[in-house]
Design brief:
alpha/beta, about 160 residues, Glutaredoxin, about 20% strand, six-stranded mixed beta sheet
């Protein structure tokens, strides 16, 4: 009986600590990591779905997403704002989802920026850097070097601050 009560008290304490440490929706949900800084994502030049000769911007935002991912859905409006900037090119990379789901998501959300939907091409790109889940957003310079990695949902203002 004492063991059971002690176990219940410990379990209640652990749940309390977890609740106190849980983030709320109003809190910042992403983290900026320097783990990939300086890595070149040169495989982007090899893809058939993207023509890098035509990209003349200072920055490339590489956003890993899936149609079923709620944070990915939430950040679409922010990515649309970012894609309107003249010095930034946005490229989406579909991860763990079918190309047909990706095409439907792009159509439904009226996404004008380029997306890599073929699994083979996504795998080539994803093999060049570390990522832990979606959404993940990379900020690349014009030489395709990773400047910043953001894990979690992003805002346009965060990207604009990091690309000043």
């Amino acid at each position: 009986m004492i063991k059971r009560n002690l176990l219940l008290i410990l379990l209640t304490g652990l749940i309390g600590i977890a609740v106190l440490n849980a983030s709320t929706p109003d809190e910042q949900t992403n983290t900026i990591s320097d783990i990939n800084n300086g890595i070149e994502v040169g495989s982007l030049k090899q893809l058939n779905s993207i023509s890098f000769d035509q990209i003349k911007t200072d920055y490339i935002i590489l956003n890993l997403w899936a149609s079923w991912c709620i944070p990915c859905q939430n950040e679409v409006e922010e990515l649309l704002k970012i894609s309107e900037e003249s010095n930034i090119t946005v490229i989406g990379v579909l991860v763990d989802d079918s190309a047909s789901n990706g095409r439907e998501f792009i159509k439904t959300n009226k996404i004008p920026y380029k997306n890599i939907l073929k699994e083979e091409e996504s795998d080539i790109v994803l093999s060049q850097f570390n990522w832990t889940g979606i959404p993940t957003t990379l900020i690349l310079d014009s030489n395709l070097l990773i400047l910043h990695t953001l894990n979690g949902e992003i805002t346009a203002n965060e990207i604009f601050e990091l690309t000043k």
